[in-house]
Amino acid sequence: MAKKKNSVQALIGLECFTDFGVKTDKAQIVFFSVEPTNISVLSAANIDVKIHHLMMAFSMIPNLEIIAADSAEYFDSNKAYIRRRLTEETNPAVRKLLNADIDFLDEIQIGMSSARQFMFAVRFRREKPEQIFAAVNRIDKVISEHGFIVKRMTVQDVKRTLSIYFGASICGESIPDIEGEEYFELGVKK
Questions:
Q1: How far apart are CA 97 and CA 82, in angstroms?
Q2: Residues whose CB falls within 8 Å of the CB of residue 185, separated by 6 or more in sequence, listed in order
């Protein structure tokens, strides 16, 4: 008997994208993008206030989760490939271009090295869509009232984050809802 091959989607339990976020085999997850605060310019008292506001938000939304992720992909594998090509390349003009590529990738990576994305996530296990909608609006309001600039992430925002996390896209280009759908003319009768 042949083994069934699992897709990445099945392995991580992702079923589909919804109006509210992502539906997995265990829950529906709604993501909120949070604008980071540069605490290096705040006084100790203001940092304490921010921490207190975060604690208050968590006490009002006990199932709130924090996610901190890179907001851009790293280029280590690209640079390793170029370095390997450099060892094989004999043409001086091509070697010069390969070195310029490494310098360019280093420059981009340095510019993005501190680029972080902060998100809050809430899991809904058995709630109906109208209950999720009401809860999402309440959560958005609570987080905002505690001094955080927050926005519920759209499907495209979630896709971009997942594509960067899983290395499917260097810049987080949009990924289709259905893998390979761009190769078929759906809905066209012949």
A1: 10
A2: none
Residue 190 DSSP symbol: -
Report pLDDT for 117: 74
User: Which CATH number applies to 8-72+116-171?
Assistant: 3.30.70
CB atoms within 10 A of CB 35: 10
The span from the CA of 24 to the CA of 44, in Å, is 41
Q: What is the mean pLDDT of residues 38-63?
A: 87
**Nearest in space to 58 (alpha carbons), one of 175, 185, 184, 148:** 148
Mean pLDDT of 89-110: 86
d(CA 84, CA 42): 45
Asked if the model's pLDDT at residue 171 lies above 60, the reply is: no
Mean pLDDT of 21-27: 87
- Whether 20 and 30 have beta carbons less than 8 Å apart is answered as yes
- What is the amino acid identity at position 62? P
Residue type, 141: K
Does the predicted model carry a pTM greater than 0.90? no
DSSP letter assigned to residue 124: E
Domain boundaries, the chain: 8-72+116-171, 76-110
